[in-house]
Amino acid sequence: MFDPAKSLHSKIFAQNFLKDPAIARKLIRASQIAANDTVIEIGPGEGVITRELAQAAGKVIAVESDQKLAAKLKKTFEGQKNVFIAYGDFLNYAIGETTYKVFSNIPFNITNQIVKKLLNAANPPTDTWLFTQNQAAERLASIAREQEFSILTKPWFTYQITYQFNRNDFVPVPKVDVVLLHIHKRQIELLPQSEKEAYAGFVAYGYRQQKKNLAANLEKIFTYEQWKRLAKDLKFPKDVRTSDLAVEAWIGLYRFFASRVEGKKQRLVIR
Questions:
Q1: Is the distance from CB of 199 to CB of 192 less than 8 angstroms?
Q2: Contact 163, 27 (CB under 8 A)
Q3: In the chain, what are the domain boundaries?
Q4: What are phi and psi of 172, to 5 degrees?
């Protein structure tokens, strides 16, 4: 019998496997995954979550990077017509054009790479649920402070931590707290996709200056009078720190920059 605690796969990929299928069943039910959904699972391991997804979703695509586990999963789910096992590294997996969701207990050490692949995909998932370290989830969801990545993605996605696991829910027992992070693709985008590149350049410029506050970071872009008016209109302190500015205010700054700032100053950001 497969023992995750002794698995080379779990050591290499920093993966902690869920023990109790009832927990997976409860969380999948709460996610409202339904019979018309296609769900991608990343790193299914022995298939504890896969079995529960198969009961709820119309189609499950489980992507496993361990060849022996993938072979075992294919035997386990042989005859299960709505389960498809794909052997390979998800970071190299070609996401199709079909609408899909993601529900996965992912290897913690590639959380950032997985999230970036999903959110930057030409066809991102409508909903993503990831088992991940609490610290990583808080960073992505910007619980304490706004990270550049979250500001870059929040015009199109929302983040929410929806469940706190007990460490003993997993084998091997993780040394960190684990949560379920829900990433939802906005139905009404805060910015059109056509402005994504220009917005990203503006945000990156604001973050990379690393001065005492955002006003100093953007002093070559906005005049003092412009900044004072923008702070008032967008309802943030004039001396706001870069990491404390909400996405809605970033969008407001970007829109003013794109429509009202002279070309010479715009080239400072674009170069």
A1: no
A2: yes
A3: 4-185, 193-270
A4: -60, 155
pTM: 0.91
CA–CA gap between residue 167 and residue 16 (Å, rounded): 10
Please provide the CATH number assigned to the domain covering 193-270. 1.10.8.100
Euclidean distance between CA atoms 213 and 96, whole angstroms: 42
**H or E element, residue 171:** strand 170-171
Summarize pLDDT for 138-165 with one digit per residue, the tens. 998 888 789 999 999 999 999 999 999 9
Please state the φ and ψ torsions of residue 74, each to the nearest 5 degrees: -60, -40
Backbone phi and psi for residue 210, each to the nearest 5 degrees, phi listed first: 55, 45
- CB contact at 8 A, 52 and 28: yes
Q: For 4-185, give the CATH class.
A: alpha beta
pLDDT tens, position by position, 186-213: 999 999 999 999 999 999 999 998 899 9
Does residue 172 have a cis bond before it (omega within 30 degrees)? yes
